[in-house]
Amino acid sequence: MKKFGGMARTSLQAQSPGSNNTPAMDEKMLKAGLEAARGALLAQQREDGHWCFPLEADCTIPAEYILMMHFMDEVDLDLEVRIARFIREKQDAAHGGWPLYYGGEFDLSCSVKAYYALKIVGDSPDAPHMARARAAILKHGGAARANVFTRLLLAMYDQLPWRGVPFVPVEIILFPKWFPFHTSKVAYWSRTVMVPLSILCSLRARAVNPRKVAIRELFTVPPEEERNYFPVRTALNRVFLLIERTLSLLEPFIPKGVRRLALRRAESWIMERLNGDSGLGAIFPAMVNASEALALLGYPYDHPARVQCRKALRLLLVEEGERTWCQPCVSPVWDTVLTCLAFQEDTEVDQRPIRKALDWLVPCQVLDAPADWQEDHPGLPGGGWAFQYANPHYPDLDDTAAVAWALYQADPKAYQESISRAADWLAGMQSSNGGFAAFDSDNTYYYLNEIPFADHGALLDPPTSDVSARCAGFLALYGQSRHKQALERSLAYLFNEQEASGAWFGRWGSNYIYGTWSVLEAFRLAGTDTGHPAIRRAVHWLKSVQREDGGWGESNDSYLSPQQAGQFHTSTSFHTAWALLALMGAGEWRSHEVHRGIGYLLREQDSDGLWHEPWFTAPGFPRVFYLKYYGYTKYFPVWALTRFHALNRKFPA
């Protein structure tokens, strides 16, 4: 796509990268680029006022969609062909398998599922792309070394014995809260996946697999002879593994009455949270497990709950002509509020579209609906927003803080009730260390990450700097005395979380650049002196990782290797926008680095007024699951350009 700002490259680089002088800024180009970007972004607003951009994950999701259809023998022939085309196109030419994010290294579990999905659709194992994938899988130890979720799927497809997967009995639903394991002690995403999965495991679910496709060729040792399905991770993991293996031998002695009670309890748990067209937990893995569990429990194909599950899953599909892919979930609330915040940076811009968007958000607030967080906070009134169109059992603190922030900036009087409920709920959900997590408070039972089921290391939802920053920033902006202690504790938490480099870890965005922007934005809203040593260290770090072209970039590899913080082989629009917003929030809008960064965004702007890049923008779970928010290359650059333009108009040189 032709670059919108390509012709003005020279004027935007009037000074060399090493110059101490601020480079000249082409005001006409800035205005033209900003107007084009705003217009393009507004054109994508839905009729009812909200925005929702696609959300892409790795190929495990579309592969699992195909495998789900064959598990249930509910195969849509045209659909599986289109999804298979998407999976083939995502195969990495360098290593022959499938990565967790664009340009990433080979991932064994993703590759096993992608290979199985393609083979079950009809791709010959002798086809060149399948041979390359198989060689890569075997090189990395074969399917027996895949993660727990992959092995569980393979067990249900009779591709490996049940002794090769963790013991996940449905009786976990009966455990008392004081027990070392309880569903309330794991993250919302974990419990919504585990409860229906426990039904599948306890009833030894077997995929229909109508074409009887097997993948024995992906094992280095015949799966029934494999003796090393559970490599020991730590000493504590060894203990848990011994306990789990012992308990699995005792499963036949579980009283039938207890098993029936647990199945009924798990079934009721699922039905209560089925969540209409948005599905259980509004996330794909939980929705698939729920759909399959209900079928296994005897719900007929045309039962309203089964119909509901199928519709929810279908709504995650993205149709792109000859190819189709599946999203892990949808992000309408997040996309809408971040777009609103971007436009709110300049109050002279027409705010009517933003008010329309905010009016769409207000009724999405979860007030008094039953929700899992109430188990630990029974007297706390609701007031949060979910990430998706609907997910009332699981409102999201990050979304809540961002929406309340935007509502306050728009009209604190008109939206007073929504803002007040949000602030009180957020303050009530603060963890004991002063931080805030995404969905729960004090979800810090770290020993549970050592159980055999948790080889992904993402079982929990502990407090993080980025979510804490959003909550602190809003509470500071709202400025109510009843939240003073919560605000002070959260700011102390943020100061304590700063890395030695000056950066902050980004749990929900890639990575240290995102985390650093989030925290510096909170300090701006809190009115923290920009001369504070923590802010100066952060500014120094951001400037030190600026790239020669004026932009910023960071690889998702930094989750594996922290020494790669702020490093990438290319700049990206969203990393550049985060760095610019952070620097401008720290009072650096006149700096050489900010001007160069603005120049980078304008040069890289495409002819449609927006930015388009293949890079994944965030982790779902660091090191195991990553996401590409298609909106991040749109509203974050607009946000940065709008802030720069507004500041320079307000404080002319």
The residue fraction in helices comes out at 40-55%
For this structure, what is the CATH class of the largest domain?
Mainly Alpha
The fold-level CATH name of the largest domain is Glycosyltransferase
Through-space gap between termini:
35 Å
Task: Explain the overall architecture.
This protein is mainly α and 653 residues long. It folds into three domains: 23-43 and 509-609 and 627-652, Alpha/alpha barrel (Glycosyltransferase); 58-215 and 225-326, Alpha/alpha barrel (Glycosyltransferase), CATH 1.50.10; 330-497, Glycosyltransferase. The protein is built from 23 helices and five strands. The protein has helices at residues 9-12, 27-43, 60-72, 77-89, 108-121, 128-139, 148-156, 188-202, 235-249, 256-272, 284-296, 304-314, 332-344, 352-361, 397-410, 416-428, 465-478, 484-497, 512-526, 533-544, 573-585, 592-604, 632-650, and strands at residues 55-56, 317-320, 323-326, 618-621, 625-629. The protein has a three-stranded antiparallel sheet with strand order 1-5-4, with no helix packed on it. Strands 2-3 form a two-stranded antiparallel ribbon. The longest helix is centred in the C-terminal third of the chain and has 19 residues, at 632-650. The protein is globular and about 75 Å long. Mean pLDDT is 94; it is low at 6-20.
How would you summarize what this structure contains?
This protein is mainly alpha-helical and 653 residues long.
Helices and strands in order:
Elements: H1 9-12, H2 27-43, E1 55-56, H3 60-72, H4 77-89, H5 108-121, H6 128-139, H7 148-156, H8 188-202, H9 235-249, H10 256-272, H11 284-296, H12 304-314, E2 317-320, E3 323-326, H13 332-344, H14 352-361, H15 397-410, H16 416-428, H17 465-478, H18 484-497, H19 512-526, H20 533-544, H21 573-585, H22 592-604, E4 618-621, E5 625-629, H23 632-650
Antiparallel strand pairs: 1-5, 2-3, 4-5
